[in-house]
Amino acid sequence: MNLKELFIHHLEKNLPKVESFHPFFNEALALMLKAGGKHFRAQLLLSVVQSHKPELINQALDVALALEFIHTYSLIHDDLPAMDNADFRRGIPTLHKSYDESTAILVGDALNTEAFFVLSRANLKDELKIKLIKTLSFNAGLNGMVIGQALDCFFEDKKLNLKELEFLHTHKTARLIAAALKMGCELCQMSEKESEEIYQIGLKLGLIFQINDDIIDTTTSQEQSGKPTHNDIHKNSFVNLLGLKQAIKTKENLLSECEQDLEKLDDKLAQMIQNLIIQYL
Prior knowledge:
single chain; mainly alpha; 14 helices
């Protein structure tokens, strides 16, 4: 079983649920988690552990699960009418379309807080759990995804310059991807210096991921991508600012930089990250 299959198996066994008389809340909680997706962040985290301390892979699965809950909550909220107002995600109707807006908001809230509950119960030393919680909350919260999303929403139809655009997407997208790698490093108790180097690679990977997403939005159909495309005309995207040709060139330059950075890492980890880049980027 490869890392993605291992993670999906763990996810399916540990879908969040609550005992109540609500007619469909547990179904709604599970819907977007079961809908597929790349599980890119979870795979990054597990790749670090597999390459450095494979004996910790079982403990790492709950940490990857917390990361997936955070990522999925962010997608659910991103799709809401108040934000992107999207009808489809991962090839199925978004939660506010399948149920209603209040359900989508509350499922997102539940997954956000459940992530930290999962981390608090992980079979790890308390000191390590606190470190993981700090890394995830910093990169997913005010200093990461939240301010990135706030900028994305506020500056719709207001053109940003390249430096501002990179700031926006570093926070909205790249920080959580970088956090996945850093949390893997923390699980393996790698040095602060090595963790920081790998975190910086993650920030570049995150920008590549975002540019790639912008390119997909411009060049593919909804059926191909599983979510609405040609939908970013009001957004500050790399394609809108630079044009498609220059966006592709920027992505290629960042990929080249990333490959050079990977040469400084342990061979096994570098190869695992390279395989994920080839598969998804």
